[in-house]
Amino acid sequence: MRRLYRCLLWMHPPSFRRRFASEMLWIFDQSGQRGIGLYTDCVLSLLRQWCLRSGLWKVIPAIIGGCLQVSAGALLGLLAWRVRGGQSGPAHALSDPEMRGLINLILVLSGAIVFMVIALSMWLKSFVVRRST
After folding, report:
1. What is the pLDDT of residues 100-130, one digit of tens each?
2. Per residue, what are the HEC states of the chain?
3. In the chain, domain spans
């Protein structure tokens, strides 16, 4: 159990490990209970440290915003297509193939946005590291 806990500590960012790993391991050793609580706390700490220290939290709103824009754009494009096609009368429900096509378009474009945001953030991080050294 201690080995598993040490592995979880090892996965933390290096600066966090240097400062807190020995103290967290001491608390683990002193704790009489080897329940799920300490492991849960360590896993949550691991996620929190990587998200906050790496700046990953900035990527998530960018991805969500991009996906919302794609979804809105796809819906507006579909509406414009229907109006141009002479179907400007009262709105009617989409057929199954049209709905599947719209969903596929939204998924593909959202995936492209996710890829671009991640690639750009990785490039920007490497650019900043190169400039600072």
Report:
1. 877 788 788 888 888 888 887 777 777 677 7
2. CHHHHHHHHHCCCHHHHHHHHHHHHHHHHHCCCCCHHHHHHHHHHHHHHHHHHHCHHHHHHHHHHHHHHHHHHHHHHHHHHHHHCCCCCCCCCCCHHHHHHHHHHHHHHHHHHHHHHHHHHHHHHHHHHHHHC
3. 2-54, 56-132
